[in-house]
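Protein: IMP-specific 5'-nucleotidase 1
Species: Tetrapisispora phaffii
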Amino acid sequence: MSSRYRVEYQLKAHRKDEFIDWIKGLLAAPFVLHAVSHDNEDGTTERVRKQYAEIFQDIENLINKKIESDKQNGLLDNEDVGFSKQYEIVEKSRLKQLVPSIGPFFTALPLEEAFLWEDSQKAISQRRMVAPSFNDIRHILNTAQVFQFIKQKRLNSNTLKLVTFDGDVTLYEDGGSLVDSDPVVPYMVRLLESDIRVGICTAAGYDEALKYQERLHGLLVAIYSSTSLTQDQKCNLTVMGGESNYLFQYFENPETGEFGFRPIDKDLWLLPEMRTWEESDMDLTLDFAEQTLIHMKKTLKLPPETVLIRKRRAVGLVPGEKFDHIKGKTVRVKLSREQLEEIVLTLQNTLDTFKPATRVQFSCFDGGSDVWCDIGGKDLGVRILQNFYSPNNPIKPYETLHVGDQFNPSGLANDVKARLAGCTLWIASPHETVQLLCRLTSEY
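Structure follows.
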């Protein structure tokens, strides 16, 4: 009979990041074997720190070898690798063998240096009761990516050219907006001052600019009011909405004082593969997703206030509102994590075998409080911006950084696809975004 732990582990496997869990396993050995407090506490800490650092150095070397292997097999291009190309691959990298779900790395990651920095700030190696955690490793990976871009800047090699951001929980709280006083705004302006293109790559799908202007008002005012930004630098701000469906660019009219976002015609930015998608296939995919969501709402006995919303390129289940007699006010209905995960996984699995859906790209994800199915994906959204900013010589993945909070695997989150188009930072709050941008912009 399976243990309760084994059953729960299998049921929750979709919430695991295999690479981070693998690193946790490697770090568990020195924690158990060497993190034993003796009379010489300083000596124990130094011994543990050394063991952790050596492990991160070894992982760093495995990543470098994987990058070389991927280059030889042509897997670091922007285009997807077809079956014929996969068939030609002779040998997997050692890291791919150890972590089968691992994706591409577009730059080296100085993990040993990043660990030592994080350890100096958070005393990870001094802990005796709590082993290095998922969040510890996530922070180390983020710090390593920032350190690498700083190093490349100093060497004037493969410098950062494009930074894209998710919206909710990355730039502002869930359902919030950017105001003038938000601490992230000055750092985004600083990126633009450094001739780095800035894109907001969000699942929020509006086909008009006004909604985005309302949510990003604080940033727009800061850019319009800036005396250090040139007009070209200001126009380097874009919004890629609905994953990869609507593109807007900053504009201003000095004569009238008008400023905001203007829509960009699709003929100017659609990727070649997206031009082959039939309108009927996209509509049928969303129709099927809509019927699945209606069925799930009934099957899981979701609150009647839960609203199904259909947009031109998306469909979703959103919690509505009801009057709370105890609190004496209207409150938002909440869906449990288990309900959200059941809906999105069912939606993904049913669409995977629906013929029209196989002829287009779609994204099913749990937004934290709602569930959506969008046509397209953030990998396409990032690639669109890479091509839009530089049509003749598109920005490369190793010159691109995407910042987001939705990186859980197995279709639960939509930022995870951005890993296919560039480097990434996995954050958990707008505060973390500010901290990482502070370090990054100190060199730009």
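Remarks: The longest strand covers residues 246-253.
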